């Protein structure tokens, strides 16, 4: 498989990156904050998320970050571990406005498991395509945000144009002061 990836796959990866980024930034803590980010991104089945669901979700983010940062073989091993521990049962569903797509767990499964299994399913395709390197962190070390690089030649280095221009300005100043 090569670009463009299916929209659901990109959305799953961008969603989980945003959850990790906001959690690190201290913006995700309460059950309400989990419900809000899931509603914002259209992650289904989460409107009743409790404090326990939120805490379980935050506890799963460590393995998500390891998926994000891992090399291909490590990611494959971790994906299998996530599926095993959450007892994933992939099945095709069609609901609301969404045509046939995969759900990893039955409806009513724990929300934290649904979130981490959804992320793991997205990584399946990246492993098969040997494309896990598209899961990156911002090249500005003060930022370090996770982002999914959709550029054709996998050349994107920054999470945003803000970080890119801040780094360019810093490099320009460094060059200017060394002459
Ligand atoms: Zn669905
Ligand atoms: Zn950044």
From TrEMBL:
Gene3D superfamilies: Jann2411-like domain (1.10.3300.10)
Record carries keyword Transferase: no
Pfam families: zf-CGNR
Keywords: Metal-binding, Zinc, Zinc-finger
Domain of life, per lineage: Bacteria
Residues covered by the FCS-type domain: 126-165
Protein name, per record: FCS-type domain-containing protein
Organism per entry: Agrococcus citreus
């Amino acid at each position: 498989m090569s670009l463009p990836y299916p929209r659901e796959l990109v959305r799953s990866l961008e969603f989980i990156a945003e959850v990790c980024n906001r959690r690190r930034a201290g913006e995700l803590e309460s059950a309400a904050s989990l419900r809000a980010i899931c509603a914002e991104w259209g992650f289904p089945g989460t409107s009743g998320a409790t404090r326990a669901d939120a805490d379980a979700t935050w506890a799963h983010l460590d393995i998500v970050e390891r998926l994000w940062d891992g090399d291909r073989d490590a990611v494959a091993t971790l994906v299998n571990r996530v599926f095993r521990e959450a007892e994933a049962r992939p099945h095709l569903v069609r609901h609301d406005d969404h045509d046939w797509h995969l759900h990893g767990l039955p409806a009513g499964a724990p929300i934290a498991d649904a979130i981490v299994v959804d992320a793991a399913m997205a990584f399946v395709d990246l492993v098969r395509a040997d494309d896990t390197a598209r899961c990156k962190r911002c090249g500005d070390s003060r930022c370090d945000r996770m982002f999914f690089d959709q550029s054709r030649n996998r050349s994107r280095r920054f999470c945003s144009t803000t970080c890119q221009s801040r780094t360019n300005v810093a490099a320009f100043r460094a060059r200017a002061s060394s002459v």
